[in-house]
Amino acid sequence: MNKITDNISIVLPVFNEEAGILDTIDVLENFITNQLPRYELIFVDDGSQDTSAQLIQQAQENYDNIRLVQFSRNFGHQLAITAGIRYATGDAVVVMDADLQDPPAVIPEMIDKWHDGYDVVYGKRLSRDGESWFKKVTAKAFYRILHAMTSVDMPVDTGDFRLMDKKVIAELKTMDETEPFVRGMVSWVGFKQTDVSYERQERNAGVTKYPLKKMLRLATDGLTSFSDLPLKLTNWLGGLAIAIGFGYGLVSLFTGFSTLQFAVTAMFLLTGLIMVSLGIIGVYLYRMFESSRQRPLYIVARTTGFPSNRAVTPRQATMAFQQPTLQRHAN
Ligand code: UDP
Ligand code: MG
Fold first, then answer.
1. pLDDT band at 257; cut points 50, 70, 90
2. Which of 8, 21, 38, 314 is deepest in the core (most CB within 10 A)?
3. 218 lines ligand 1 (CB under 6 A)
4. Cα R_g (the chain), whole angstroms
5. How far apart are CA 188 and CA 191, in angstroms?
6. What are phi and psi of 172, to 5 degrees?
7. pLDDT (0 to 100) of residue 327
């Protein structure tokens, strides 16, 4: 592929980033000026309640490579990435945080590996600056549990910072998962994948938009969309409970009947087991329910800064079977 004619789309999800967004734009635009490929920046405003969108629109007056997709409300980081990818038309697409935690200097390395023939080049975090020990420990544990539990080979310590060839993007665009776990989907797609290592930086401004609740949600989505182990676990636990009950029954045949204390303990244990099992089944059931509803994945309120000749298909706008009324807003 010819370096000079490459088009690169950079997708940046944005949620309440007014404190640092202009700095991010400046740094990226400066970085881009010294590079050979042609870049566009696709910001997906995930329902920010601050002035992030206005600031991006202001910047559009100075730079003609800034696109903005605005959601009608906060749909979450993973859906913001999904939308950005659907609007991207580059030969390669880079996904990165809007807070400069993913250093732009890594992008040329990714592009080099892409030119070497790799279709996905993901950033592997060597260290994480300025993040709480809680976040570091939970993130480390999460990536390892996920890796152990899933049949898809997902790299550890890897977030969504990555470069993907347009053929990978084409596959992602066909996936209408209601609660997407994008990095898992990218692993699932396959093709030639490799990594580049980098030091994760501190945020340029503001605080994390990933409170514990959103982290837990991401972890659940990752596990339930790529592993049936929790469901199987339910069976094993049930089997274990039956075995214990059976063993206990046998023992009591010889030693007389149980004490009240034992009965109470057993009751708690078994009730707990049943509730956990039901809970796990419920999570999967809810996912089925979510996807059977066929709601659009997200709603785009408006887009600005796209070239007028860029066709936006219904799937790019929201999802495959989407009402024509929403398409109108998409360009
Ligand atoms: N983000 C988003 N929607 C959300 C939460 C976060 O689009 O509901 C964006 C956020 O603005 C940032 C990226 O996703 O660009 C990653 O979030 P954050 O930096 O807060 O996560 P962390 O780096 O702390 O894990
Ligand atoms: Mg961040």
1. low
2. 21
3. no
4. 24
5. 9
6. -60, -35
7. 39
